[in-house]
Amino acid sequence: MISNYLKKLILKIGVARVMAFIVLLIISYAVYFLQPYLINQLFAQKQTQTNRVIVLLLLAISLMMMPLINCLNNGFIQAVRKYSKQELWADITKKPLSYFARQSVGKVQSYIKDVSFACRELEQTSLAVVIQMAVMLLLYTILLSLQNIWLGLAYLLFFIGYLLVSIMMARKNRQNVASSLSSASKVNEYIVDYYRNVETIMSSDAAKYEQDKMDKILAHEQSSFIKVQAITNKAALLQQLMIVILACVIAGISQFLLGTHDSQSLSIVLILLYSILNLSGFGTQYLAIEELLNRIRAGLAELEYGKVEKVPLTCFDLDGSKQEIIINGISYSYHGQHLVLSNLKLNFKKGEMSALIGPNGAGKSTLLKIISGFYQPDKGQIILPFSDRPTIMYVAQDASLFNRSLMANICYPDHQVDLQKIYGLVQEIGLDSLIKSPTDLIDKTPGDFKNKISGGEEQKILFLRAIITKPQILLLDEFTSNLDEKSIATVYKMLKQYLPKSTIISVIHRTAELRYYKHVVEL
Ligand SMILES: Nc1ncnc2c1ncn2[C@@H]1O[C@H](COP(=O)(O)OP(=O)(O)OP(=O)(O)O)[C@@H](O)[C@H]1O
Questions:
Q1: ω into 67 cis (within 30 of 0)
Q2: Digitized pLDDT (tens) for each residue of the chain, 523 residues in all
Q3: Which residue's C-alpha comes closest to atom 3 of ligand 1?
Q4: Which of 17, 238, 407, 432 has the CB geometry, 3.0–4.6 Å to 427, for a possible disulfide?
Q5: How does DSSP assign 175-210, residue by residue?
């Protein structure tokens, strides 16, 4: 899963761009790691004055390499920020409705942020570290081997041993990292939940109760991060011990070599010193790489990245000769366990308005969602009386508005309708006390109103959206539940006037409203 995600990310950024960046990093680090060799050349006794100036210039350039690399990195890292989120979001928006029903918004937000952050860190620090180590290993093995083959070989073996120990230690932490991330996302979920239910919490005088809940979640987060850090610290200790051993070896070698006044001994000691300095960083950096990969892995798993789910819509048959929507033996159970509809057989007249009634929990909303194509029934079939696939619109019971202009909400997604015509509908439905002029439609968003928009006003805006969309099949789920008597009469009048040909199925609870319907279907 992770390799697939990273592959897609690289494709989005551009393979050529990634390769060019890597080559540039390799060149930059090669120049940087030549420093011991250049220093040695600078102090070599047989150097001409011109050569000394050239070497000094090269040394100055090599000292500038690190900040130069950081400058190169900026455009690249912002591309990683953009495409890491874009790829996740593209995958999530392909998911069926059931995904959004089971995954909380806090959790999804938290993991998108986390995966994207880990990708950026991986690029910014880890990619550089891997290239840095590879260049250092290769360059110094060659330079040392040129002086003494055994020295080069010993250096290579020690280096590889050190890398292996770092990798092994980091892998031990995988499970802990995954559980610490999950506990961090719980904090986020809790905050979103608190926000949503703040009125209930305040009216229940539950501040203390909620505080205890948050304390427990934070304590769990704390203990899981302590576990991760403990292994990281142990690994860092072991790695430092290996570095100390290498330092002692260098001290011995330098005593032995420098004592002989060999002209190349300074270069050997400098190479080993540079290796020590960079290796001590690598230990912690590798742990960070492993942790970042674990973060991405855990995030992708939680977001169900790349998981293909049963695609709905397969139960539809189109038959233009029919005059009814025919529900033919539909059964549906949530998560394969909770049987809600069993062998259901119903008909809804084409081009007319039917009321769908039944007790709470009977499955009315579920049926509308199946007709909308959101859920795939376990068995049965739906025959739509059309030759081509009709346009279907579902207005959910608890639908809310986008934080976009009122016009954008009414004409969603992008119906081109004259502003004056929309304002005429606004007046007709009685929203003109709220939306005072046509410019309000463009300038104001639902959040701009003093006390936000009331439940009834929200339903009226959603209703106007349905009128503008003019779907062939309109599925309304308790769309009048917040409306007063006068508004109810108005919306039914508007339905007849503006959608005379649509097939409308409307879930209602108030029996007084049945007089507006030609057909009543009971579940
Ligand atoms: N996403 C879901 N996951 C699991 N069970 C669900 C889900 N949505 C609904 N249910 C269950 O399915 C059953 C039918 O729910 P549904 O909302 O379709 O009924 P309804 O007839 O519209 O009810 P109401 O009149 O109260 O709105 C209920 O028992 C409900 O708990």
A1: no
A2: 889 999 999 999 999 989 988 898 898 888 888 888 888 888 777 778 888 888 889 888 888 887 887 787 788 889 999 999 999 999 999 888 888 888 888 889 989 999 999 999 988 877 888 888 888 888 888 888 887 788 788 888 888 888 787 777 777 777 777 788 778 878 878 887 887 777 678 877 788 888 999 999 999 989 988 888 887 788 778 777 877 887 777 667 666 765 555 556 677 777 877 777 777 666 667 777 877 888 899 899 999 999 887 665 556 889 889 999 999 999 999 877 888 999 999 999 999 999 999 999 999 999 999 998 888 888 899 999 999 889 999 998 777 888 889 999 999 888 888 999 999 999 999 999 889 999 999 998 887 765 578 889 999 999 999 999 999 999 999 999 999 999 999 999 999 999 999 999 999 988 889 999 989 999 8
A3: 334
A4: 432
A5: HHHHHHHHHHHHHHHHHHHHHHTHHHHHHTT-HHHH
Global pTM value = 0.70
Ligand 1 contacts CB of residue 365 (under 6 A): yes
Which residue has its alpha carbon closest to ligand 1 atom 10? 334
| Residue 142 near residue 159, CB atoms below 8 Å | no
The answer to whether the CB of 338 is under 6 A from ligand 1 is yes
364 CB near ligand 1 (under 6 Å): yes
Please tell me the distance between residue 363's alpha carbon and the centre of ligand 1 in angstroms.
Answer: 6
